[in-house]
Amino acid sequence: SDAQPSVFLFPPSLDQLHKGTASIVCMLSDFYPKEASVKWKVDGVLQSSGIQQSVTEQNSKDNTYSLSSTLTIPSTEYQSHEKYSCEVTHKSLSSALVKSFNRSECQKE
Questions:
Q1: Which CATH class is domain 6-101?
Q2: Which Gene3D superfamilies does the UniProt entry name for this protein (predicted)?
Q3: Which of 20, 21, 23, 25 is nearest to 10 (CA)?
Q4: Which long-range contacts (CB under 8 A, 24 or more apart) does 46-53 make?
Q5: Is the C-alpha dihedral spanning 95, 23, 51, 2 positive or negative?
Q6: What is the pLDDT of residues 35-49, one digit of tens each?
Q7: How far apart are CA 60 and CA 109, in angstroms?
Q8: Would you give the distance in Å from CA 37 to the centre of its chain?
Q9: Which has the closest alpha carbon to 89: 49, 38, 55?
């Protein structure tokens, strides 16, 4: 039977930003079947580069899959935008599931 993914979105760490890059991670867990798609949007604009995706093997206990998608961009570019979204499409979902965060709300210097 189909299982809906749990979706978590993690902003980059300040440590990482100070080093010059920003990696934003979208984690999907406990879903079935394996086919799932993740789209990244920055201020509403679809991103096509800087994305790495990896799918885990099937979990032997409950036969579900997990996936992580990472968007990596230069810190300067990260700082120049506000809204970061990961949009998940999966057979179990009637419409895309979107997780977002606003950069200004995450950044506490």
A1: mainly beta
A2: Immunoglobulins (2.60.40.10)
A3: 25
A4: 47/71
A5: negative
A6: 999 999 999 999 999
A7: 42
A8: 10
A9: 38
What is the band of 107 on the pLDDT scale with cuts at 50, 70, 90? low
Cis bond upstream, residue 33 (ω within 30): yes
**Global confidence as pTM:** 0.92
3-state SS track over the chain? CCECCEEEEECCCHHHHHCCEEEEEEEEEEEECCCEEEEEEECCEECCCCEEEEECCCCCCCCCEEEEEEEEEEHHHHHCCCEEEEEEEECCCCCCEEEEEEHHHHCCC
Token pair recorded at residue 38: 């993740």
What residue segments make up the domains of the chain, in order of their start?
6-101
How far apart CA 31 and CA 29 sit, in angstroms, is 6
Q: Is the pLDDT of residue 17 over 90?
A: yes
